[in-house]
Write the structure tokens for this entry.
Amino acid sequence: MFWRISALILLFLSFNFFYLRHFERKGIYYPTREITLSPADVRLKYEDIFFRTEDGLTLNGWFILAQRPRGTLLFCHGNAGNIGHRVEIIKIFNQLGLNVFIFDYRGYGRSQGIPSEQGLYKDSQAAFQYLLSRSDVDREAIVIYGKSIGANVAINLASKVKAALLISESGFTSAVDMGRKLFPYLPVKWIITVKFDAVSAIKNIAIPKLIIHSRDDEIIPFRMGKELFETAALPKEFYEMRGTHNDAIFTSGEEYNLRLDSFLSKYLPSH
């Protein structure tokens, strides 16, 4: 009986070990190739942009110019879909007086390649360099924004480049912490290879930071947003939203707009 129970436990742990490794390979990124909506569908003019990464891939993005821009937002989106699924959020930022440059990571939309952690970091760096190449972008007023896994990408980018502001929304502390949440009975730290270690990167970011998280987030625990905030260096602000992971922006409505406008107004020139 003892050996039978031991064998069953070993089988259970082995199954979860291999499931976790499979999840790491297949379950982190959910790219969609077909782009069904564009900024034109929410009455915004835009430029269809193609730019190159340091490892030779061509990525696609949209640049939406604000009428009287006070800055430019570099938009790092979440792990599913593509830029076409973010047009309503693009409109919110554009109405706040920001140019918006949103891009698809490698393997998403019309961008070449296959997604990976280091690949996403390279993609965000290439997008930032693209903004620096534009004469209509104020280099001193670039805001890095990321949502969900994009928040972790944004935090990594902000730790390496000179930007004006960082906005992290619904980010997680690290992939290891998320793995422990999903598989609390496994030694996740010794199994998982991706890091997305935002809690370490955010310690050394000196620019003003707005950390946003919904208390009702059913995917990424609210406590992770609070830990990112508590770990971050000053200056920093925290905005607690209500609503689910994907709908909190729309649930919060005008409050979200006012909160972001207040943060932007402190550090960017008036428009």
Strands lie at 30-31, 47-52, 58-64, 71-76, 80-81, 98-103, 142-147, 165-169, 209-214, 236-241.
